[in-house]
Amino acid sequence: MRHPGQGRCMVTAVSTYAILIESNPVETMSGETTRANFRNVTAQKLSNLMLPEGGELPGWSTEDLAAMLRHQLQASLESDLVRTNTISPQDYAAIVSEAAQSPRTFGELFSHPTPPLNLLKLVKDFAKLCRTDPDHPLPTEITMVLYHISVLLAQVRCATRISSLSNHKLRQGCEWVTAQAWVDPSLRRLVHKTIRNIT
């Protein structure tokens, strides 16, 4: 799916956010990681770890990121997952046929009270794919949002771990999401409320 501003040179990610945080923790004097620090560590470390071939990091404004995230949340799950070869059309049809009132978009999946676990797994895989596939690029910041929310919802709403992230790393990633001003307020509230169940 084409996104606003996608004609620009896209970033190729070379590291997951969990590794970024694990290698470079940013803490206050009391030992607590703050939202401001999450914003700072992302700006600093993404610029170092995810340089494109030319050596310069294309900048995304908060307006760019907000528009692209809105666009992605409204995007068809079937269209994006099938087109990126995350799943075949036949297998996708089989998954949604088993789910009552299956969500049609990324946004509907995230707001679903009992989201289909297989769709959350696919969105997690989709986010990882888009982080490295030059044919289906998304800004690293957007893939981080999709990845952490799908893992969080699978663990809390489906009682299933779909990632090797520890609870501590998952919470850190989700706190990064809630600290981003360009993330839709309703999505930030959802994440903030849900991570209370992660100890």
Structural class: mainly alpha
Low-confidence stretches: 4-57
Number of strands: 0
Principal-axis shape equals: globular
Spatial separation of the terminal alpha carbons: 36 Å
The overall pLDDT average reads 78
Percentage of β-strand residues: under 5%
The percentage helix is 55-70%
The H/E string reads: HHHHHHHHHH
The description of the largest β-sheet is: none
Number of helices: 10
Radius of gyration: 16 Å
In short:
The protein has 10 helices and no strands. The protein is mainly alpha-helical and 199 residues long. It is globular and about 40 Å long.
Describe the structure.
The chain has ten helices and no strands. The protein is an all-alpha fold. It has a domain at 63-197. 35% of the residues are buried.
Helix and strand arrangement:
Blueprint lengths: L16 H7 L11 H15 L12 H13 L2 H7 L5 H9 L8 H6 L5 H16 L7 H18 L9 H12 L6 H10 L5
Descriptive key words:
single chain, mainly alpha
